[in-house]
Amino acid sequence: MIEQILKDPIAQFCLLVLAGLVLRLTFGKNPRFRLAANLMFFAILTILLLSHRIEPYASDMTVDDTSRRVFIGIAKTVWWIGGAMVLVSCVRLFLILERKPREGRLLQDLIVGVIYLGAGLSVIAYVFSVPVGTLIATSGVFAIVLGLALQSTLNDVFSGIALNLGRPYTVGDWIVLDDGVQGRVVETNWRSTHLLNGMNDVVIVPNSSLAKARLINQTSPDEVHGVTLSIRLQPTKPPAAIEETMRTVLLSSNAIMKSPPPSVTIIGLNSQAIEIELSFRVSGIAKAATAKNEIYDLIFRHARATGLQLADTPGTPRAADGDAAQERASPHPGTPWRLLNSIPLFSTLTEDEKEALATSMTRLTFRKDAIIAAQDTALTSLMVVRSGVVIIERVEHDRKIELTRLAPGDCFGERGVLMGAVERGTIRALTFVVGYEIAKEHLAAVMHDRPALADELGLLLSRRIETEKHLFEGTAADNGHPNSLTARIRHLFQIQHDPRP
Questions:
Q1: Are 422 and 431 in contact (CB under 8 A)?
Q2: Can you tell me the distance from the alpha carbon of 390 to that of 374, in angstroms, rounded to the nearest whole number?
Q3: Quick one: how far is CA 248 from the chain centroid?
Q4: Is the confidence at residue 405, as pLDDT, over 90?
Q5: ω before 221 within 30° of 0 (cis)?
Q6: Following DSSP, what letter does each residue of 112-163 receive, concatenated?
Q7: What is the largest CA-CA distance in the chain?
């Protein structure tokens, strides 16, 4: 009885399918064992069917027994599926694109889809004896009608596939399209790409439009972003001198990258203006606006310090230089007074107070790379930069850390003057520097009359301490809260609260 059952093809087929399922569940996670199991199952099934004169690739078998006809149909279907699984296992194991796993996975899926489609058509042809040619022709007509109805959607789908293969951008990249639309890629799907623009709005762009558009990926191959600014200055000095001033502008910036070095290019010159292009890089697209604002501010300060004047745009009537005329007509034409008048820190002082403080200021010059103050030394006077660039660097654990760079109008030494504290870094002249020194006793006299100046100095010191905290770790920091610093300054200088608005 058992021997007859074991010789029955249906029983043999059921036992083989059961064994195949056990092998797949046991070794299914390993691609090599899965290929071996599928190949073994397909080979044994082929031998089993051929030994019982069942040709799975033939459709002209005529069987009167209904149960046997059903068995042959199931066996042929399993045979075609088993053959497809062998091919799929080979594709998953051997078709690998190195360094492009996403593209490799997509290509595998496409080939696997073609394999299963072919297996399905073979089952229709050799199991159900349906003419595949007629079926393909009928389905082709239906596909044409459906394709025309879904033309836009299918265009987006296939464009999405092409974009995924080419990968001109990924999620997180900032892209700019030729029509001006720009934003950070937050999502890509089968039909569209979602961009988050600078206004925090989501812009949905169809993949078909992206595939045809010219786009700029501003975060590839890395986050470094280039920025270019063009300015026009009156040609009151030789172009080489103006170029050197603009190089000093870039040298004094804290927001741009130092490597690769920024550049200055003269792109035009006539009797009305000299046009200069400044090129630099920032560490990320989000920092471009901050860097531009700082560069424009530094251009104004350095131009004012060196006597350069901005030029009008072509075609506009030339206006009189009101600032220069006002300074020439001022009763205080001296450089110290003009320097104090241009610094917001001293804006609360009256004209007489500025004049008194200006007369007490001492002019100092420092050659390039000269040490103005060494690290851990206390300054006894406030220094105001008139022209040039000053750098403050700290050496910590054999590592040099750049704290900040100072431009015309900036000051240093307030830590020692106001609190008697030492400087956190070495102060060095990065270019030839002209500065003005304000002695502690003269500054104290002004602060007694104008307590608001102590508040401004306390705010300046707190900002500088806060910046230093983000640059280095492991050392004790001063109390950087503006209110506490102002209170300490008022206590040290015995300054009362100013009731005047």
A1: no
A2: 13
A3: 27
A4: yes
A5: yes
A6: HHHHHHHHHHHHHHHTS---HHHHHHHHHHHHHHHHHHTHHHHHHHHHHHHH
A7: 127
Q: CATH homologous superfamily of domain 330-493?
A: Jelly Rolls (2.60.120.10)
CA triple 451-358-329, angle to 5 deg: 115
| CA 46/CA 40 separation, integer angstroms | 10
Average pLDDT of the residues of the chain: 82
List the one residue out of 422, 413, 491, 423 whose CA is nearest residue 457: 413
Give the tens place of pLDDT for each residue, 303-341.
Answer: 999 999 999 887 666 555 555 555 554 555 567 888 888
Closest CA to 253 of 110, 410, 459, 98: 410
Question: Residue 501: what pLDDT?
Answer: 46
- Mapped onto helix, strand or coil, the DSSP state of residue 56 is coil
Cα(387)–Cα(140) distance, integer angstroms: 79
| Beta carbons of 478 and 421 less than 8 angstroms apart | yes
pLDDT digits (tens, 9 = 90+) for 277-297: 999 999 888 899 999 999 999
DSSP 252: T
Distance of CA 250 to the CA centre of its chain: 22
pLDDT (tens digit per residue) in 425-445: 999 999 999 999 999 888 888
Cβ atoms of residues 455 and 483 within 8 Å: no
pLDDT digits (tens, 9 = 90+) for 201-241: 999 999 888 888 898 888 878 888 899 999 999 999 999 99
> Chain-centre distance of CA 61, in angstroms?
66
Q: How far is CA 430 from the centre of its chain?
A: 30
Q: Assess if CATH 2.30.30.60 describes domain 155-217.
A: yes
β-partners of residue 437 are 362, 383
pLDDT at 474: 46
Question: 3-class SS at 317?
Answer: coil
Residues 415/440, Cβ–Cβ less than 8 Å: no
Query: Angle formed by the axes of helices 101-126 and 132-149, to 10°?
Result: 130
At 55 the pLDDT is 83
Residues 6+ apart with CB under 8 A from 286: none
Residues paired with residue 373 on neighbouring β-strands, in sequence order: 427
Whole-angstrom distance, CA of residue 265 vs CA of residue 489: 46
Residue among 57, 56, 118 at smallest CA distance from 85: 118
CATH architecture of 225-316: 2-Layer Sandwich (3.30)
For residues 380-395, average pLDDT? 92
DSSP bridge partners of 401: 394
